[in-house]
Amino acid sequence: MSQVKFRAILNDKYDLEEIAQRKQSARPHHKTLIYFAVVWAVLNILAIIYITKSNYIYFWDDSTYWDIARKIASGAFSEGGFWHNVYNSVAEQDYNYIAGLPSALIVKIFGESRLAYILGLVNLYLVTSFAMVYVLAKKVSKAPKIAAVISLMICPSMVFLTFNGFVDIGGLLGCLVCFNLYFVKDKDDDAIWRYAVIGVLLVALMLWRRWYAFFTVSFITAMLADCVLFKKKWYKPIVTIAVVGLILVVFFRDFLVYKLMKDYGNLYSGYKFSVGTDLKLITRYFGIIFVGMLAVSSVVMAVKKKETRTLFMWVQMIVCLFMFLSTQTHGQQHLLLYIPSLIMLTLISIRHITKEWALVGISLLALVHSVNVYIPRTQPHNIQEIKHMALIPNFSMLPVSRDDTGEILALKKKLDTTVYDGDTLGVLASSFTLNEDILINAEPSLGVKSIRDNYIVSLPQVDSRDRDLTPLYTVNYVLVASPAQTHLAEGSQTVVEEAVNSFMNYADIATAYEEVPECETVIDGITIKLFHRVRDEHQADIKTFEARLYK
Mean of the pLDDT values across residues 20-41? Predict the structure, then answer.
């Protein structure tokens, strides 16, 4: 029987599973339920192992929405009306509160632990996205159970982003639903409501994380290309564009004006490295072989099978890539802009497999991708340390750890007992070794109960983004790390470098402070000192300091 099923996968005219379902339509889909139960169990067990075996302090993008979820659950945003604050955050905050709402419910029910938060992401977004991949496999591929598993294994970055706390994974589900609505199996089911719903989903994606605007524009561009190249009906993209525009103009005008229409090329200039850096990151998570295989497969299918649907996905990815490269360098989470199309191309490629070697080949590639990320190897600390493009994904899915967690925790406890109640502390450090998020999240990341409410506030860190220097002049305490701790290209974080120079030389703005010597410590070769404000800043000192920034 297994041999018959294997042959059926290779035969376009014979779908064994579909025939079996027609014969047994009255029977419960127990095999499908078992299939999803196994996938659910595997993903949850892997997540539990990853989190419980990690010894890490989470910060920046892999902790921001964990922090927001905890604040929402504790009622921190209730003053002035909770939903009013959520709505305003869309136009006012770089990380609005919408994406934190589902996780806040998880935190409220199951607690604030990192494990509860990650399992929430796994079950809310990763498992449901896999279910949508299965739905798409039934529509555009064959042997949907096998095709869906291959898609998950060949793109292990989906699992990686989820386990590392990127709430951005929630957008993957919306992207996949857009593809499901656009690619219809029955032309008679090509109703106008589909394209209106796509418009609603594209807006929802941008509200979830605003950089999904790149997906929105590229998806609509692909719809327009479909009309031009294959004479599809023009009402499809027109309806989608109209719905997107109407919702943004009527309900989210401030979001449109103050967030989506910003000059991101200038705003994020400090985050822009070379194109080669982007390509090294992209291949690190996808692999050259996989992308190359899909490109060759698309050409072969177009020539031999007249399969033209693949062009839609390539247009979406290429347009998205060029738009993003013109703005900034990709981060790990931004790869979600391409994963939906890569999945679609994988499913369609499987649909047209008729040779045993091709099926074995793609199955082996998926297995290699999934196994290779569990092989121990030295990992780069940041994007600039990635040395070369990768043939297969070479990031690590092993539990993460850092050796200085005890020292960081000791520093945080010392600060807790030193900083006066009601006072604020800013951190003059912005590296992967020390930054404000590391101190804020040290205790919850390590499962240690906090003894104080948060008193750490943000200081300016990136020249092109943080133009308001007021927090630097008004904070009660400043924690200074020397040598200056930065993580972006040289010259992008002058405000941090010059402020550290002021405190180390006790000049200009630093003269308003006194050092608290008992808090001095050294972590990983970094000297850390605490300063306490004893008077207001003099305008002359501020001018002297800022003259060094804008020279």
Answer: 76
